[in-house]
Write a structure and sequence with these properties.
The protein is of the alpha+beta class. The chain contains 3 helices and 14 strands. β2 and β3 form a beta hairpin.
Length: about 210
């Protein structure tokens, strides 16, 4: 580096019009730029952009779900009539008068769920070799079965589930109970519990 300085100075003496101090100053500026540390690239702006993209993607998925609600097949039983509904898995639901059942349009045997929206229904659930559960949603009550016959009554102030044969599990929030044939489960939302009693099945007719 010093040899280079000397060469520039020697050349400057052959050109009297160039001020040596100017050459020295220019050289120092060049040397300082060469020895200056490389600037580091901050990743914070890139991370911020990535976070914004993720939030936009999540918002888009949420918006699509809200504006494309799940489609259901709706079955009604009018006043004074009963209606038998055969589900894709050959389970049979008998709706009592003034009752409504909703079944997902994209039903599949790996996700057997139905919604009893009102009234009363008797379920004869087909037991599958795959042992996929069958779930009935009735307001706050959730009934989970494998293969059985049971009745759900939503006409009273509290939902009733009567097991005719087989086995079901009734659930309300964190409370879960397994019923035996001839047992009636009554949901008491005020006491936050499920009351179970033995009854004579023949006295209950959907």
């Amino acid at each position: 580096m010093d040899q280079a300085k000397f060469a520039v100075k020697a050349f400057s003496r052959t050109e009297p019009k160039v001020d040596p101090s100017t050459i020295e100053k220019s050289w120092d500026q060049l040397e300082s730029r060469i020895n200056a540390p490389a600037k580091s690239i901050s990743l914070r702006p890139l991370m911020a952009y990535a976070a914004v993209i993720v939030l936009l993607a999540v918002g888009l998925v949420f918006w699509l779900n809200q504006n494309n609600p799940k489609e259901y097949l709706v079955y009604h039983a009018d006043f004074g009539e009963k209606r038998a509904v055969t589900l894709p898995d050959n389970s049979i639901v008998t709706l009592n008068a003034n009752s409504e059942l909703r079944v997902p349009a994209d039903w599949n045997d790996g996700n057997r769920e139905v919604w009893l929206k009102s009234g009363e229904a008797f379920f004869h659930v087909q037991k599958l070799a795959s042992k996929d559960n069958f779930i009935v949603h009735a307001e706050d009550f959730e009934v989970e079965v494998l293969g059985t016959k049971f009745n759900i009554n939503m006409r009273t102030k509290s939902t009733h589930v009567l097991l005719v044969e087989g086995s079901v599990q009734v659930a309300y929030e964190n409370n879960k109970n397994i019923l035996r044939p001839g047992e009636l489960a009554k949901l008491d939302t005020h006491m936050n519990k499920i009351e179970i009693s033995e009854v004579l099945v023949s006295n209950y007719d959907s």
